[in-house]
């Protein structure tokens, strides 16, 4: 199906994605190396327990929200 194709593409393309996760913060960070000398610190959690918060740094961010529907 189409959703499986999209997930497989992301896995092959070195994308990091996480389902059923709350994004608590997206913060731009100046860096020496990187596109336009910019990176992003992303804080995620399970949305319930603050002790589950994890911060990661990424070169780029794409926010997708909602349902995927294919005809």
Task: Explain what this protein looks like in three dimensions.
The protein contains 1 helix and 3 strands. The protein has one helix at residues 2-12; strands spanning 22-30, 38-45, 54-58. Strands 1-2-3 form a 3-stranded antiparallel sheet, with no helix packed on it. The protein is flat and about 40 Å long.
Question: What is the ordering of alpha helices and beta strands?
Answer: HEEE
**Average predicted confidence as pLDDT:** 81
Could you say which overall geometry the principal axes of the C-alpha atoms support? flat
Report the helical percentage.
10-25%
Strand fraction:
25-35%
Work out the number of β strands. 3
pLDDT < 50 runs, ≥5 residues = none
How far the N terminus sits from the C terminus, by CA atoms, comes to 11 Å
Class based on secondary structure composition and strand pairing: alpha+beta
Q: What's the arrangement of strands in the largest beta sheet? A: 1-2-3
Count of helical regions: 1
Question: Biggest sheet: strands, sense, closure?
Answer: 3 strands, antiparallel
How large is the radius of gyration?
14 Å
């Amino acid at each position: 199906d189409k959703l499986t194709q999209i997930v497989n593409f992301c896995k092959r393309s070195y994308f990091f994605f996480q389902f059923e996760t709350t994004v608590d913060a997206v913060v731009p960070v100046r860096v020496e190396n990187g596109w336009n000398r910019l990176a992003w610190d992303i804080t995620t959690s399970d949305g319930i327990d603050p002790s589950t918060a994890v911060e990661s740094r990424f070169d780029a961010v794409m926010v997708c929200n909602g349902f995927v529907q294919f005809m």
